[in-house]
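Folds abound. A case:
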Amino acid sequence: MTELKNCPFCGSRALPSRSYSEVKQSFYAFIKCTRCGIRGRSFWSKSDPLENWSKNDAAQHATEAWNMRGGRIDTDEPKAPETGTQEATEEPLTMG
């Protein structure tokens, strides 16, 4: 199974989740942060994705979507500091 990345908003652990729609008579799989509750994109599944997450297509799509950041797959690029602010790279503007 692909490892889930932490929440992109609060940095907390995320877990696989699912719900059931009586209307569609289908499950949907998604990833949800355990702290802030943000949810990733949902994917429909005829079978319960939590029974075998690693072999369920909807579950795998939900995992891949969660692990994507900014519409692309994360790489080992440097990231902004988790706390505080980034240092300015230009001199401040002065008047007059």
Observations:
- The CA atoms of residues 41 and 65 lie 7 Å apart.
- The helical segments are 57-67.
- The beta strands are 14-21, 26-33, 43-45, 68-69, 72-73.
- The mean pLDDT is 77.
